[in-house]
Amino acid sequence: MTQVQKLEKDCAEGRIKGTKRLYRRIKSLYRAPPEALQHILEALEKEGWAVCRCAHQADTCIARCIENAADPDDVRVITKDSDLIVYRAATSITLAVGNDWKTFAKEDLLGKLNLPTPDHLLLLCSLTTNDYTDGVPYYGLVSNADLIRSFELDDLSQLDDQAR
């Protein structure tokens, strides 16, 4: 039985509950072969794109590339990782949303969350579930934003990179 047939059978028998699980199963049906991905990355690099290849999280590598850029505002980050926006150097990121791409600006995000500074956003990400922590149990993004908003943060830059 092929993977597609197994998926069809599981759907027909009601074994897949919810669209999120269905999406994950469908997404796992096809993965581009590594050789195809390698060709795409090489083509992007020939066009002058900086491509980060990391064994694990690429966030810090990408943030370092932005910080080292001659004009960080000219850097466009295309990622599947939405928490990259919290890094001080990142001013915007472009994410896949459905079948489209959407660019999120840090200033817009700060406005939507009603956070006074980028340091508040950094603290919010640290408190909420992210790539590195499970976050504070029972609290979500909105509750954490309400809590963080009340903090007076002088400046988190005094903390070294290891402490952040």
TrEMBL record:
The cross-references to InterPro entries, in alphabetical order and at most eight, read: PIN-like_dom_sf
Look up and give the organism this protein is from. Answer: Mortierella alpina (Oleaginous fungus)
Q: What is this protein called?
A: Uncharacterized protein
